[in-house]
Design goal:
It is a single chain. 76% of the residues lie in helices and 0% in strands. The chain is mostly helical. It has one domain: MFS general substrate transporter like domains (Growth Hormone, Chain: A, Up-down Bundle). Helix 4 runs antiparallel to helix 8, helix 10 runs parallel beside helix 15 and helix 10 runs antiparallel to helix 16. The longest helix is centred in the last third of the chain and has 30 residues.
């Protein structure tokens, strides 16, 4: 059977391996974070929302800054290496935390690393392939990322089985796959010198978005992304909801594994599908599925429903992760991809902080159902905005390199 991903360039495949190892490390930590914060440190959902909102918003701001600077100097790998190195150095130290502010500081530093690496890495992927392969390339990268997110919780579950209750030790051992990720990036990814371009304007100015970028389509797309993200709270709330529905803490890594495996299996086909039918239909389908899953979590009453909803939630990611990034690359010139990806990720971050904060506060005041229902409504509204865009605005833009 023909496997299109085998035709992808070396840099795309290598970055896929980096993502696999890095996410194996990260996902040994993230599924256990709600239990660690609430049970070990004795904090609640509101703190969890604050923690995740601040962490993700910080990362998103830095994605713009790092993307802009990588455009300016036309070097991407150094940013990626610095970012992956920082995250994988500080993330395991959460296992040593004894207070909420310790977790907040370390999670903040972890997301600083993510902010530094993400936009330059995405620009490397976009530069490595032709326009007709972008969906597949980004889908493959996300598939490997999600495969790592499958391996990580399995490792965590095995360690918890061998060492019952040793959450701190599991968090510390996440250092091992993190080191592998950094070594793979340093040795396997080759920097491709991009053609000279005029210096990019400062990212704080309006022209940083408009210079050479098709303003109407790109800005409307970003507006839809912001609206969707306002209802897209941290996935740790889904873990917390699963526990509320009766899923034992020891089984949470397995639930996360099922979710991540579905993401891994659907990401590359979802990206390739967008190469064939267009980015907008793929993204809208994913956002509508997201709305259905959130309504499901609002109405769920038993543990088996949480398992099923997590699996369907993975399909949502498979439909949108590659196409959302590919559409950014479609709409901008090659010398602006770093900051364009930065603006995209910044818009996600703009919505991330209020999304998680509001979600946590609504949950505390009124329960889980109203919080999940609000997320579903905002996803439907964002789908309507994207659906209302002119078809021509989402046509693939010919690359300049």
């Amino acid at each position: 059977m023909r496997r299109p991903y085998r035709e992808l360039p070396q840099n795309v495949k290598a970055l896929g391996l980096v993502s696999l190892a890095n996410d194996a490390s990260s996902e040994m930590v993230i599924p256990l974070l709600p239990a660690f914060v609430t049970q070990v440190l004795g904090l609640g959902p509101a703190f969890l929302g604050t923690l995740e909102g601040i962490a993700e918003s910080t990362a998103s701001i830095l994605k713009l800054v790092a993307g802009w600077h990588s455009d300016r100097i036309r070097r991407r790998k150094a940013f990626a290496l610095t970012g992956y190195g920082l995250s994988n150095l500080v993330r395991p130290l959460i296992g040593l935390a004894t207070a909420g502010w310790h977790v907040l500081l370390l999670r903040f530093a972890d997301r600083v690393g993510k902010g530094i690496r993400t936009s330059p890495r995405d620009a490397i992927v976009a530069a490595a392939v032709e326009p007709g392969q972008r969906g597949l390339a980004f889908g493959y990268q996300r598939a490997m990322d999600n495969l790592g997110a499958t391996v990580g919780p399995l490792c965590a579950a095995l360690l918890l089985w061998l060492l019952p209750g040793q959450l701190r030790l599991v968090l510390l051992l996440s250092l091992v796959p993190g080191v592998v990720a950094v070594l793979l990036l340093a040795s396997r990814v080759r920097e491709r010198r991009e053609e000279a371009a005029p210096p990019a304007p400062a990212p704080a100015t309006t022209s940083a978005l408009a210079g050479g970028v098709p303003a109407g389509s790109f800005r409307t797309y970003l507006a839809a992304v912001v609206l969707f993200t306002l209802g897209n709270s941290s996935d740790v709330f889904l873990v917390l909801r699963a526990q509320e529905l009766g899923v034992a803490v020891a089984l949470v890594p397995i639930v996360w594994t099922v979710f991540s495996l579905v993401r891994a299996l659907t990401a590359a086909p979802g990206g390739q599908l967008s190469d064939r039918i267009g980015r907008r239909p793929s993204i809208i389908a994913g956002w509508l599925l997201y709305a259905a899953v959130y309504l499901g979590f609002a109405l769920a009453r038993s543990a088996w429903q949480a398992w099923a909803l997590f699996a369907v939630y993975g399909v949502y990611y498979g439909l949108v992760e590659g196409p959302e990034r590919a559409l950014v690359a479609d709409l901008v010139a090659s010398d602006q991809r770093g900051r364009a990806f930065g603006w995209f990720h910044l818009c996600v971050g703009i919505g991330a902080l209020p999304a998680s904060l509001v979600f946590g506060l609504i949950w505390r005041a009124h329960g889980a159902a109203p919080a999940f229902t609000l997320g579903a409504i905002l996803a439907l509204a964002a789908s309507a905005v994207l659906l209302g865009m002119k078809r021509g605005a989402l046509a693939m833009r010919a690359p300049s390199s």
